[in-house]
Amino acid sequence: MLFRSLLLSLALAVVASGFAGCGTDDDEVAVLETNYGRIVYEFLPEYAPKHTAAFRQMLSEGFFDGTKFHRIIKGKIVQGGDPNSKDDDPSDDGLGEPSQPRIPAEFTTQVKHQRGIVSAARKGDDNDSATSQFFICLDDEPAYDGKYSIFGRVIDGMNVVTLMANAPTQTEPRYRERPVDPVRINKAYLSTRAKLGLPPKSAEPELGASNTNAPAKK
Question: Would the pLDDT of 21 be above 60?
Fold first, then answer.
């Protein structure tokens, strides 16, 4: 874990110094192969370079393989990425591992929490407590703007996210946001738009304040 923390710190330093002036590889995307189907999201390093670097590294290491989407707030978000969710004990899902490297907050109001936005979860009011957990928006969530670090946007598979969001959740009050049956990430990795047969980034609409620019429902 110490070695991974050092690697993450190095990646964050490199990205913080390089992305702002050099641009990014717009072809690279994240692929989440779930038991509901495939989700693909692009990175937004121009708004959150440190989060982009951290999640790219975790994806390259296979960190998310076997994790679950442990939290569903119907009509709002689905949340996953906690290493604790790999086992069959739901009691610690969402709590995270204390030894995980933290990612400093990168809040912006230039990008809005719209349908398809991928943003970093954090602990309570601790702005700099993001680690590996993330959520995907099902609709516009203006209350999150400027309070959570947006680092990605779903470009393929929002139909899959919608299916997840409609999964039955448990009735016990403390687990009411937990799916009854596991919503699992079988494999998560980096790929490219070209390999997946997706259009280049330049062919997509720009992010804006209106959900008319959000990914289309499929």
Answer: no
